[in-house]
TrEMBL record:
<dbReference type="GO" id="GO:0019902">
    <property type="term" value="F:phosphatase binding"/>
</dbReference>
<protein>
    <submittedName>
        <fullName>Transient receptor potential cation channel subfamily C member 4 associated protein</fullName>
    </submittedName>
</protein>
<dbReference type="GO" id="GO:0031464">
    <property type="term" value="C:Cul4A-RING E3 ubiquitin ligase complex"/>
</dbReference>
<dbReference type="Pfam" id="PF12463">
    <property type="entry name" value="DUF3689"/>
</dbReference>
<dbReference type="GO" id="GO:0006511">
    <property type="term" value="P:ubiquitin-dependent protein catabolic process"/>
</dbReference>
<dbReference type="InterPro" id="IPR016024">
    <property type="entry name" value="ARM-type_fold"/>
</dbReference>
<dbReference type="InterPro" id="IPR022162">
    <property type="entry name" value="TRPC4AP"/>
</dbReference>
Length: 745
C-alpha cells in the first residue's frame, strides 16, 4: 500500500510533461507487481509501450495494436458517463480514465507526430471531454489547436474533430485568431452545407466577445475604462472581418438559413429506436452521426443510388432507414440555430453595413418569411422531439431557442437601418406610400429606394406575420419580450408617421394596452419591452393618443396603467420621454384635431400638470448614480435631460431647478438630488462627447439636435453661482459636494 502511495504522489505532483518521464523511470517489474492490487488494468504498462513505439521512426502498427487494447477500457466508462446523465467525473466513477490521465496518456498522445493525431486523439475524444483538466491542457497548446482545424478536411473524422475543437475553445483563456488557421478560405470552401452549419458552432466562439457577464448589467464606468485600455479592435472583431473576406461565406450561410426541410416521410424500426434514443441526445453533431449511419446503410442496401446532402440537406434514403420527419425537422432547426447566431453577431459588428448589403442581396429575409409557418413558428405536434430533461415549452428546447434567435436576428436587422423595409412585401410597401400621400407628408426615402426584388414574397411580409403571432401569444409566453423588441427595432430611428400607422391599423396599440392593463403583466422585462414599443408607436402621433384614450376609457383602467408606469421608472422612462416630447409638440400646434385630443386624452392631461412632470424628474434623478449607471438605466438620465431641455426652450429652466431644490428640503435631504445630478451630467459629458460615441440615436429619438443637448448640459454645469440656469446656484454652500471624483473601477 505504501508503494502505491509513493507512485501516486510522484505522478500526481509532477508536471504533466514529466508524467511521461516518471512513467519511464518506474520499472516494468514494479508496475506489474502493483498493477493487480491497484486495479490499474495494465494501463500504465500499455502507456509505457505506447511511448516507446511513438517515435517518428518506430513501427506505428505497434501503436495501433496497443491502442486497441486501451480503447475498450476507456470506451466502457465513456458509455457509462453518457447513459448516467453526464454526472461529474470522479476518480471512483471512472478509474481507467483517471489512471490513463495520471500516467500521462494524454501527453503521450499529443507527443506523436501530428499526422498520427488524427488516428489517436479523435477516437479518444470522449475521454478528453470527460476527464477534468485534460481539455484545458490541450487548449494551452495553440499549435495543436490550429492543427486540429486541418483535420476537418477528413469527412470521416469531421464530426469528432469539430466537437473536440469546440470543447477546447470553450476552455481556452485567449480567443484564437482565425487568420492563423492554415488555408482557412480553402478549408471553408471544402465543407458541404452540413459541415458548414456545424462549423458555425466553432465560429460562434471566435466571433463573440468574451462573456464577462450580462452586457446591460455592466456599469458604464467599467466599460469606458475598458475601452480606454483596448485601443485597437478586439480579437472577435478581427475574426469577424476575416470571415467576411472569405469568398461566398455569407451567401452560403443565407442558403443554409433559408433552405427547406425535405418533405419525404416514412419511418423504420431501426430509426424509430434512434428517435427513442434521442431523449438523451442534445447535440446536432450527434444527429449528424445518426444520419450518416442511416445514409451509409441506404448506400449499401440500394444499387447504384447516388446520395447528395448539400442543398437538399437531407438524403433520400431507403424505406428501411428513412429518418422520421420529426428528427429531420429537429436536425434542420439545430443547424439554423448555429447559422442565425453567426449572422446575428455579424449584423451587430463593425462591418454591419457590409453584412446588411450581402444578406439583402442573398434574400435572407424573403427566405425566412417562406419558412415562417412551416418551420420557424410551426405548431408543435404531440410527437415532436424534445431534449432530455426538457419539454416543448421549455426555454432551452431547440424549437424555443430557434424562435428567440430568429427574433434577435430581426431586431439586429431592423435597428436603425433602411433595409428594415425588406421585412414587408410589395403590397405593404405600397400601403406605406398611400399612408404618406393621404397624410400629405413626403414618403420616406428608404421606402422609395427599397429594391422590390429583394422584399418578401406572398400575401404577408415577415413583419406582418410577426404581428399575427404576437397577438396570439399566451400571457405567460417567454416570446413576448423578444417579439416586442423585434417590432420596436422596426420603429427606432427617425420617427415615421407611415410606419406607426401601418402598425396601428393592425391593432398593435390595443394589443400592448391589453397586455399592460387587462392582463396586468408582472414580468419586468416584458413590461419594459412593451413600454419601449408603446413609446416608439405613439411618439408625435396624435392618432395613436386618440386610440389610447379610446381603449383606456375609464379612470380605473387609467389608474392601472399609471401604476404599471410608476412601479418601475427604469422600465417605463422611455414612454415617459415619448409622452413629454409629444405633449410639447402638440401644444405648439394649432390644428383643431390636435386640440381636441389634447383636451380629451387622459394621458396628455396627466403629463401636462407641472407637479407630475416634476415628480417624474425628481424620481428619475434619484434612482440612478454614476457608479450604478448601465446601458439599461442610462436612459433615465437622458429622459431627465429631455424634460429640462424642453423647459429651457420655454425659459423655465430656473423654475424647474428651484422646484427640485424645494423638493429636496421637503424630503429633508438638501443638496442630495442636485449634487447627484451634477455628477451624472459630468459623467454624461465624459461618456457622450467621446469621439467614438454615436450621438445620432439621441437626436433621432428626441428630434432635438445634439448641439442643443451639449449646450444644455454645459449651462447646467456652469460653475457660476450667479447663473439662474446653473445647478450650483441651487445648492447651499453647506451641502455642496460637486467636486468628488467618480471612480472608474
Amino acid at each position: 500500500e505504501s508503494c502505491d502511495k509513493v507512485i501516486f504522489l510522484v505522478m500526481k505532483h509532477w508536471t504533466h510533461w514529466n508524467h511521461i518521464l516518471s512513467l519511464l523511470q518506474i520499472t516494468e517489474a514494479l508496475l506489474k507487481e502493483r498493477d493487480k492490487q491497484a486495479k490499474w488494468n495494465g494501463i500504465p504498462l500499455l502507456l509505457q509501450k505506447l511511448y516507446e513505439h511513438s517515435h517518428p521512426n518506430s513501427d506505428f502498427s505497434q501503436c495501433q495494436s496497443i491502442l486497441k487494447e486501451i480503447s475498450p477500457l476507456l470506451s466502457m466508462e465513456a458509455m457509462v458517463y453518457v447513459t448516467e446523465d453526464r454526472k461529474a467525473a470522479q476518480e471512483s466513477s471512472f478509474p481507467n480514465t483517471y489512471t490513463f490521465d495520471l500516467f500521462g496518456g494524454v501527453d503521450v498522445s499529443v507527443s506523436f507526430q501530428y499526422q498520427k493525431i488524427c488516428m489517436i486523439i479523435i477516437p479518444l475524444k470522449n475521454l478528453f471531454s470527460e476527464t477534468e483538466g485534460v481539455t484545458r491542457r490541450l487548449a494551452e497548446r495553440n499549435d495543436f489547436v490550429l492543427f486540429l482545424f486541418t483535420l476537418m478536411t477528413n469527412k470521416k473524422t469531421f464530426l469528432q474533430t469539430a466537437t473536440l475543437i469546440e470543447d477546447i475553445l470553450g476552455v481556452k483563456k485567449e480567443m484564437i485568431q482565425l487568420d492563423d488557421i492554415p488555408n482557412l478560405a480553402s478549408l471553408v470552401s471544402s465543407f458541404d452545407q452540413q459541415q458548414l452549419a456545424n462549423f458555425c458552432r466553432i465560429l460562434a466562439v471566435t466571433i463573440s466577445e468574451l462573456d464577462t457577464g450580462s452586457d446591460d448589467k455592466h456599469t458604464l464606468l467599467a466599460k469606458n475604462a475598458q475601452q480606454k485600455k483596448n485601443l485597437g479592435p478586439s480579437r472577435a472583431e478581427i475574426n469577424q472581418a476575416t470571415l467576411l473576406n472569405i469568398p461566398g461565406f455569407i451567401e452560403r450561410l443565407c442558403k443554409l438559413a433559408t433552405r427547406k426541410v425535405s418533405e419525404t416521410t416514412g419511418t423504420s424500426t431501426f430509426l424509430q429506436e434512434l428517435e427513442e434514443w434521442y431523449t438523451w441526445l442534445d447535440n446536432a453533431l450527434v444527429l449528424d452521426a445518426l444520419m450518416r449511419v442511416a445514409n451509409e446503410e441506404a448506400e449499401q442496401s440500394s444499387t447504384g443510388t447516388c446520395l447528395s446532402s448539400d442543398e437538399s440537406g437531407l438524403a433520400n434514403t431507403s424505406t428501411r432507414t428513412q429518418l422520421p420527419q420529426s428528427m429531420k425537422i429537429m436536425h434542420e432547426i439545430m443547424y439554423k440555430l448555429e447559422v442565425l447566431y453567426v449572422l446575428c453577431v455579424l449584423l451587430m459588428g463593425r462591418q454591419r453595413n457590409q453584412v446588411h448589403k450581402m444578406i439583402a442581396e442573398f434574400r435572407l429575409i424573403p427566405g425566412l418569411n417562406n419558412l415562417f409557418d412551416k418551420l420557424i413558428w410551426r405548431k408543435h405536434s404531440a410527437s415532436a422531439l424534445v431534449l432530455h430533461g426538457h419539454n416543448q415549452n421549455c426555454d432551452c428546447s431547440p424549437d424555443i431557442t430557434l424562435k428567440i434567435q430568429f427574433l434577435r436576428l430581426l431586431q439586429s436587422f431592423s435597428d436603425h437601418h433602411e433595409n428594415k423595409y425588406l421585412l414587408l412585401n410589395s403590397q405593404e410597401l405600397n400601403e406605406l406610400s398611400a399612408i404618406s400621400h393621404k397624410a400629405n407628408i413626403p414618403e420616406v426615402d428608404a421606402v422609395v429606394n427599397t429594391d422590390r426584388s429583394l422584399v418578401c414574397d406572398g400575401k404577408r411580409g415577415l413583419l406582418t406575420r410577426l404581428l399575427q403571432v404576437m397577438k396570439k401569444e399566451p400571457a405567460e409566453s417567454s416570446f413576448r419580450f423578444w417579439q416586442a423588441r423585434a417590432v420596436e427595432s422596426f420603429l427606432r430611428g427617425t420617427t415615421s408617421y407611415a410606419d406607426q400607422m401601418f402598425l396601428l391599423k393592425r391593432g398593435l396599440l390595443e394589443h400592448i394596452l391589453y397586455c399592460i392593463v387587462d392582463s396586468e403583466c408582472k414580468s419586468r422585462d416584458v413590461l419594459q419591452s412593451y413600454f419601449d414599443l408603446l413609446g416608439e408607436l405613439m411618439k408625435f402621433n396624435i392618432d395613436a393618443f386618440k386610440r389610447f384614450n379610446k381603449y383606456i376609457n375609464t379612470d380605473e383602467k387609467f389608474q392601472i396603467f399609471l401604476n404599471q408606469i410608476n412601479s418601475s421608472l427604469v422600465d417605463s422612462n422611455m414612454l415617459v420621454r415619448c409622452i413629454t416630447l409629444s405633449l410639447d409638440r402638440f401644444e405648439n400646434q394649432s390644428d383643431a384635431k390636435v386640440a381636441e385630443v389634447l383636451s380629451e386624452c387622459r394621458l396628455l392631461s396627466y403629463m401636462s400638470q407641472m407637479s407630475m412632470r416634476m415628480s417624474f424628474l425628481f424620481r428619475l434623478i434619484n434612482i440612478i448614480h454614476v457608479q450604478t449607471l448601465t446601458q439599461e438605466n442610462v436612459s433615465c438620465l437622458n429622459t431627465s435631460l429631455v424634460i429640462l431641455m424642453l423647459a429651457r426652450r420655454k425659459e423655465k429652466l430656473p423654475f424647474y431647478l428651484r422646484t427640485l431644490q424645494q423638493m429636496e428640503y421637503t424630503e429633508k435631504y438638501p443638496g442630495f438630488i442636485l449634487n447627484n445630478f451634477h455628477s451624472l451630467l459630468r459623467f454624461w459629458q465624459q461618456h457622450y462627447l467621446n469621439k467614438d460615441k454615436d450621438s445620432t440615436c439621441l437626436e433621432n429619438s428626441s428630434c432635438i439636435s445634439f448641439t442643443y443637448w451639449k449646450e444644455t448640459v454645459s449651462i447646467l454645469l456652469s460653475p457660476d453661482r450667479t447663473s439662474p440656469c446653473a445647478i450650483v446656484s441651487y445648492i447651499d454652500e453647506a451641502y455642496m459636494d460637486i467636486d468628488r471624483d467618480f471612480s472608474e473601477e
